[in-house]
Design goal:
Number of strands: 11
Strand content: 15-25%
CATH class of the largest domain: Alpha Beta
Oligomer: single chain
Helix content: 25-40%
Shape: elongated
CATH topology of the largest domain: D-Maltodextrin-Binding Protein, domain 2
Largest sheet: 11 strands, mixed
């Protein structure tokens, strides 16, 4: 897949590709190597993109999805790995999803909540990671339940446990871990939504955005995404279908 000089200059105007990573998404960004090199599915994709553009990658690290998304306003990154949400699309041009992560609820021991319908009722308080993709989704779609936002995924778990809230919304792979920390708690069957993980670039970069869409589709078709999932032993995620 050839890359035009205009695409390179638009996506990497400083001569490096500044790649925004959300370290709160433990499925996509693992712990850094001893030398500080980012590890995981998202860093692998970022390095592959930089290689195809013929520039060096420079990783910009954030500890929450909302902070990463807000970074576009300050010009802090050229491309970023984010959940594709309408609230972010005014400023960020998203690619089709490259990966999907199911979202559901964890409820405490003895909870009468059995289904998603039971959760969306008056008096039900749901802990959620502030400005996460599923927080934005639930804000749009819940009609009666109350969302209680906390700073980060671990913060939402602590709020759920400490304040004895009725439910915790989260990525299913993480909720499996959380359930083991709370004896008697259980995960509701099915999924509320699936977070569509995409690459984003500032909306003004139209040429770069078109290239990124082709790039993501090529990685899905070639098996690159599936191989990265296997290589990093990430469970509970799937390669997104062809756009």
């Amino acid at each position: 897949m050839s890359v035009s000089p205009a695409t390179v200059s638009e996506l990497a105007p400083t001569g490096k590709l500044r790649i925004g990573l959300n370290y709160a998404n433990f499925l996509l960004v693992l712990k850094d190597a001893r030398d500080g090199t980012p590890q995981g599915i998202a860093p692998d994709i970022g390095r592959e993109l930089a290689s195809r553009l013929g520039v060096k990658p420079e990783f910009v690290k954030f500890d929450a999805a909302g902070k990463l998304a807000d970074g576009v306003k300050k010009g802090m990154w050229d491309v970023a790995f984010l959940g594709n949400e309408p609230q972010r699309a005014n400023e960020i041009a998203f690619t089709p999803a490259y990966l999907e992560i199911p979202v559901t609820y964890l409820v405490p021991a003895g909870s009468p909540l059995k289904s998603f319908t039971d959760v969306d009722k008056q008096g039900v308080r749901i802990a959620v990671a502030d400005q996460s993709a599923y927080h934005l989704f639930l804000t749009r779609n819940l009609k009666a339940a109350e969302l209680v936002a906390a700073d980060g995924i671990e913060g939402s778990f602590k709020m759920f446990a400490d304040l004895k809230l009725e439910a915790l919304a989260g990525l299913k792979p993480r909720l499996i871990t959380d359930a083991a920390r709370l004896p008697g708690s259980r995960i509701l069957d099915g999924q509320v939504t699936a977070v569509q993980q995409s690459l984003g670039t500032p909306r003004s970069r139209e040429t770069g955005a078109r290239y990124l869409k082709e790039f993501v589709e090529s990685l899905k078709a070639s098996g690159f995404i599936g191989a990265a999932i296997t290589r990093h032993n990430v469970n509970g995620v799937t390669v997104a279908p062809k756009a």
